[in-house]
UniProtKB/TrEMBL annotation:
Annotated protein name in UniProt: non-reducing end alpha-L-arabinofuranosidase
Catalytic activity annotation: Hydrolysis of terminal non-reducing alpha-L-arabinofuranoside residues in alpha-L-arabinosides
EC number annotated for this UniProt entry: 3.2.1.55
Keywords, ordered alphabetically: Hydrolase, Signal
Family per similarity comment: Belongs to the glycosyl hydrolase 51 family.
Amino acid sequence: SLTVDTAAAGTKVSRNLYGVFYEDINHAADGGLYAELVQNRSFEFDSSDEPSYTGLTAWSKVERDGAGTITVTGDRPLNANNRNHLRVDITASGTGVGVRNSGFNTGIALQARKKYDLSFFARRTSGGPVNVTAESADGSTTYGRASFDVRSGEWKKYTATITASGTTDAARLVVLAGGSGQVDLDMISLFPRDTFKGRENGMRKDLAEMTAALKPRFLRFPGGCVTNVGTYDPYSDKQDRRRIYQWKETIGPVEERPTNFNFWGYNQSYGIGYYEYFQFAEDLGAEALPVLSVGVNGCGQNRPLTDETKLARWVQDTLDLIEFANGDVKTTWGAKRAALGHPKPFGLEYIGLGNEEVFPEFFANYPRFADAVRAKYPDIKIISNSGTTSQGAWFDRMWDFAREQKADLVDEHYYNSPSWFLANNRRYDSYDRDGPKVFVGEYASQGNTLYNALAEASYLTGIERNSDVVELASYAPLMANVDYVDWTPDLIWFDNDQAYGSPSYYVQRLFGRNVGDRVLPSAFKGAPLPVDDIKGAIGLGTWNTKVRYDDVRVTDASGNVLFSDDFSAGADRWTPGAAGAWSVRDGGYEQSAIVEDARSTAGSADWSGYTLEVTARKTEGAE
Ligand code: AHR
């Protein structure tokens, strides 16, 4: 029986409880949410970042009834932030010499009858044609074409609209220069007109719609480790391409945004920049929640920013970001926002200061940022962070510091086993109600199975019950391209034309779309589900388990004990011989354990992929 105290005031559920954390990891931006179809459109990929990269990554040479050479050069670039471009030297005039782009995954995805905006910058020594086709990999099918007469000796932008004549996920974009002489090309772009909410330079519709279906109340961005690992030098000074995410480099015309080799080991175009993030949050009906480094790297690396001048610039950039989001059009940065098309302030309420910046320098740097923000923008809620774990000495230290600093919230991150999530449902019951609130900014149970999703769902009941202290929560990471995976598990998986949600996605959607106003106290009375029933539910007929307060036993159908463990030792494992190859991993947390079939790991099990997790509880009479 379930008793609900309907007379009680209950716990008010935070209005922003469920949100999303979007990071450019797993190609979540280029080749993902960012709708651009051309990979390496600005020829900036560089072997000094990644040995397999060249300026021609994703491009290959095409000669059609003509001959010539192609190179990537920095000679008289498009602008100071866009250093390289393609140079075609035509040696034998014909239909054309140029390049073919292979897009992402299997190629460029096109849908019949949809419109695509084609654009590029070009200049040439003698006037002549540039012909562009969207075609199949073998060139036998043409999906669309556009021709241009390029006469200018100076950089000039050329545009056209292509309507696709067919549907494919494997097209190529071929750009050919005819005539003679030298032709320079840069920022070759093919962009679907049909983006989320029809935004120019916008988001891929299916991925954005799946995000919107979660009904997120906030959008944390741009990371994660992508925010805060690398040097603090601006692009103009850069020696090291892996630079910290610098928001000012990500706004304005896309051809003026420098690319960056990001923490996750690939080139990032910044096509989705801070303006697009704010716009996307608004389109989702979510609060924008940017996270900035406070000059302490984190994510396992520490190259703290101690140079006073650079630190002061960094603090100023943080203040300028708030002005960019919220400032009146008469302010410097408010005016820039207005010029980009959004005179109305975005209404920023939260700012994250630091992502997993668990190094001593954090204690020196954080106050400089927090004090400056507090002084100028007292209404902005400041989020400190607690690092990469759910507990431990650093975790406690970071929390103590956040309390001293009177942070509004503390960003907790943890990726744990499903058993941890089941065992920790009461984690926030005992949190201090008077201190900073909690932002569970990154969490996931390790795996993408239904069982992981159920463990997370169970855990979310604890979060919701405590949403007077847990103000915000977001699963992480949000997106992964199936062919460029840096991190699992993830919520939304996709290739270049399809997307699906993991089981965890549907848990997030269920909770996000069904947020109550109050959680009323309730009590459940009843017998725990017999373990044999669990066995039945998972379809194992040859053995059964018995769970007590602090032990787990696996017995076969005749009652022979195949395994028992009281969790007194740490890494308990059991490998019987002929009887099977069961092993038990101690979940390391109170009375929980994972029982798994080692044969499935070896690939020879009947019960392939099977994992049984037993959480033993001190439940009266439970056996
Ligand atoms: O979500 C993936 C990564 O996990 C994030 O970039 C980082 O903050 C955390 O360690």
